[in-house]
Write a sequence for this structure.
């Protein structure tokens, strides 16, 4: 028998031990909780803070932690504050796409080369350079061999090619961010836009609307929309006719819309913007980041120029004009049959090898009555 | 003061520590669960307004419980006296009263307990037959902690008796 057991027997002997039966002991914990709630309620002291802190306080004590209620209440408040902070941070992160910087009301010029000017709503013009801003109502104009890239938030990138004019009708401050191409050609690229937002580029006769894609819009005698990625909805301004263009398709808009396959050269051109990454937080980017981007744009342009030249060298001319452009002349071959063939003679021998629009043609030398050049 | 947050916090601390003890003491006197709950409730309602003023809650709570229990018992037995109530169920024989008083002194001595939790634990286990687990749950300690601390207290009380010439606890049996 140990000391503790002996002591209990001693208390028993001297009537200092009054056992409470297990049945009565079993209800103590519940009675304790109920009575405390009742007392605090009647005294008007059962605030939400106390209600919240009591279970935690009991749980901590149940785990053997020597805390008093005040400490339990402070721990409970701290935990509540942490929960509130976590929920607030979660809500902030979740709503981040709806807040800055995804909803800026202005664009930032991330690249400019050559003569690029910005004209404000008041008509004042200034030379434009990287890091300048573009606000709603501004117009950008590029000169010969000039180019500019404007980024809006981290979702829209627009590149003006040489001899082009672009107006910012609305930026991300409106549900539909809209640019107008008044002259020249514009390349546009979009990352996914948030719900209920769209992006459109307007040419004099056509409007191209998208949600996430890469495409180009050229304004001229015939406005042209070319799609390199995703899908673009094109609408004719006057006739109201609409087309949905998929990847690799193009539409010419004159008196009406005409769909056709995009040429390799047109698709390669869009690579000038497709291969350029978005600048993270362009409004606060460092000069070094803009310099790095400019170097990348120049390198990409050089690569694409080379690819286009190579393509044009390999490609079979499809019109007499293209034949003239490629060979510098148009050969005219009169046959004894009375037929006249126009193209470029690229080989002679037992047969003449001629490039005619879209193909080669071999003409037996004996059937040639006369040749000449236009 | 109890209306303030500080008074309320003090009250909750005391209530959580002593409720089981006061309930058990009331049950030991009244022998009925509902009566014991009523008595404990009355004691703590009275204490609520004085939580911040009472320096030593345990004697105050026991003193108030004694009055409350006396009032409740007197309703059933109008001629009851306080002395009769205190001696109820106790039969005195030679030397019994003195030894009992010495043991009571040992149980009241602050020197034998580290703190009030220690004393409450001892009373729940030794006087009211709570298991270590039950007493630990009431006082916010594990069963193992409760057993360890009870053992230390028993040793201190044995030391107290040795100081008074009783070498072994068995000598008191």
């Amino acid at each position: 028998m140990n000391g503790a057991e002996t002591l209990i027997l001693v208390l028993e002997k001297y009537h200092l031990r009054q056992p409470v039966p297990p049945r009565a002991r079993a209800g103590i914990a519940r009675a304790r909780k109920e009575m405390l709630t009742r007392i605090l309620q009647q005294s008007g002291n059962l605030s939400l803070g106390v209600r919240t802190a009591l279970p935690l306080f009991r749980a901590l004590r149940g785990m053997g932690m020597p805390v008093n209620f005040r400490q339990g209440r402070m721990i409970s408040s701290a935990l509540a504050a942490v929960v509130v902070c976590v929920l607030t941070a979660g809500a902030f992160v979740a709503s981040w796409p709806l807040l800055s910087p995804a909803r800026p009301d202005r664009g930032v010029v991330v690249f400019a080369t050559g003569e690029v000017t910005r004209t404000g709503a008041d008509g004042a013009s200034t030379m434009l350079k990287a890091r300048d801003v573009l606000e709603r109502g501004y117009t950008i104009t590029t000169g010969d061999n000039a180019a500019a890239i404007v980024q809006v938030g981290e979702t829209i990138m627009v590149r003006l090619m040489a001899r082009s004019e672009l107006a910012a009708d609305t930026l991300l401050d409106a549900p539909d961010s809209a640019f107008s191409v008044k002259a020249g050609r514009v390349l546009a690229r979009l990352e996914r836009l948030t719900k209920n937002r769209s992006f459109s580029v307007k040419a004099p006769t056509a409007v191209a609307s998208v949600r996430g894609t890469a495409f180009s819009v050229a304004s001229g005698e015939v406005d042209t929309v070319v799609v390199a990625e995703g899908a673009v909805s094109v609408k004719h301004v006057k006739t109201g006719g609409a087309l949905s263009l998929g990847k690799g398709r193009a539409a010419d808009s004159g008196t009406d819309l005409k769909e056709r396959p995009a040429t390799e050269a047109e698709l390669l051109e869009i690579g000038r913007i497709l291969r350029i990454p978005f600048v993270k937080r362009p409004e606060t980017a460092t000069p070094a980041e803009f310099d790095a981007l400019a170097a990348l744009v120049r390198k990409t342009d050089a690569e694409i120029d080379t690819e286009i030249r190579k393509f044009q060298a390999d490609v079979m001319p499809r019109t007499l004009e293209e034949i003239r452009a490629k060979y510098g002349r148009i050969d005219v071959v009169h046959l004894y049959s009375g037929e006249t063939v126009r193209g470029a003679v690229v080989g002679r021998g037992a047969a003449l090898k001629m490039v005619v629009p879209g193909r080669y043609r071999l003409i037996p030398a004996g059937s040639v009555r006369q040749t000449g050049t236009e | 003061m109890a209306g303030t947050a500080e008074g309320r916090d003090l009250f909750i601390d005391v209530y959580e520590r002593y409720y089981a003890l006061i309930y058990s003491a009331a049950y030991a006197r009244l022998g009925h669960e509902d009566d014991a709950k009523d008595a404990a409730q009355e004691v703590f309602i009275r204490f609520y307004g004085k939580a911040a003023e009472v320096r030593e809650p345990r004697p105050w709570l026991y003193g108030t419980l004694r009055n409350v229990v006396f009032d409740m018992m007197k309703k059933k037995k109008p001629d009851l006296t306080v002395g009769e109530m205190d001696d109820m169920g106790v039969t005195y024989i030679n030397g019994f009263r003195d030894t009992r008083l010495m043991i009571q002194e040992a149980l009241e001595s602050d020197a034998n307990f580290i703190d009030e939790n220690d004393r409450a634990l001892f009373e729940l286990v030794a006087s009211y037959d709570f298991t270590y687990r039950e007493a630990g749950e009431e006082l916010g300690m594990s069963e193992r902690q409760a057993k360890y601390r009870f053992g230390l207290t028993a040793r201190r009380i044995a030391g107290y008796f040795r100081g008074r010439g009783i070498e072994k606890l068995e000598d008191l049996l």
